[in-house]
Amino acid sequence: MKILRVTVAFSIALSLGATTAYLWENHQVKAIDMDKRILSLPMKVVCVGRFLVDVPEIATVTYRSASVSGWNILTIPETDEEFNLRIREKENLLTARRNERNGVSLESTRNVGGSEIAGKIFLFNRRWIPIMRAGKEVVSEVVAIDALVRSGGISYEFRADFRHPEQVEHLEKIIRQLRGLPVAHIPEEAGFCFDRGFIRDPLTAEQNESVSIFLGIKEYPDLAVSLSSTAGIDHNKTLLQRHSDSDIQKEYSSQFHPLRIGARSLNGITGEEVLQRVDELNGVKLHGFMWESIGNKTDVYLPSLSLELDTGLGRPGKPVNSSLSDAEAMALWEKISSSLRRRSVR
User: Fold this and answer.
1) Model's pTM, two decimal places?
2) What pLDDT sits at residue 316?
3) Domains of the chain, with CATH numbers?
4) Distance (Å, rounded) from C-alpha 106 to C-alpha 117?
């Protein structure tokens, strides 16, 4: 009987071992299949600032408003007729408005024209702001300076609420460096690209050019990927330093599962990354991946770059289970992140 029990126990162990081996082998095959499926996704190239990144062809890419020298830039799809109507309506509206001292809000307009650009700059809404200077109160005068311009069949709006009046000259210079970009066109000149628009160099890091994109994939509604680029800024702490100092990760350390953490350069761009799977308090599992460059605030070609991939995004405050496994999330991250590169220029 003792021999029989040993034989039965040995048989069970062999069976369990075989089952475990089969499950592990099956898991490995599935993980490889997932990687292959992600790696076989057709990709398209997107221009972000001075950089290119490959994203899935099926992804919907959305640009946030760009900014240069403190002017926010919006890209507006419209016809020539709609553009001309907007200019007339804005001029009429500002002429009818009053500033804080009951003067006419619109102080001046300036036409911008050329072979590649047309539009109008508006200087309006003067304000008198008391400030302390050398221990004395002085009054600083600021205005809003906006522009509606059109290039290559695409309209753009430049907006800034607090500018000194003489800075209208600076805006006109930037606008004369602007040209419209057809969808999916990658410029070959040196400069800064944003949503269907491109501003030729010279631009400096002190002008703080900034742009970001977001992308989603219909098949994975809980997935979001973003890339942002901002020149002329400096983080007090690097990504790894902030990760190490995170109080929430220290308090809930068992809920964070590192997949990869450390220094990582992308095509010559020095940076750091933190890739984690997170167990939320409601039981769902999601991913939080981030890579951040080590930039130089004085170099327009070494801006602050931040690439992020998140899964498990549901309604605000209601995370959901990730639609991607660890293997799929890592494969997609590798496919996108490894493509980030500086745009070649002539």
Assistant:
1) 0.87
2) 85
3) 42-64+211-342 (3.40.1000.10), 70-176 (no CATH)
4) 23
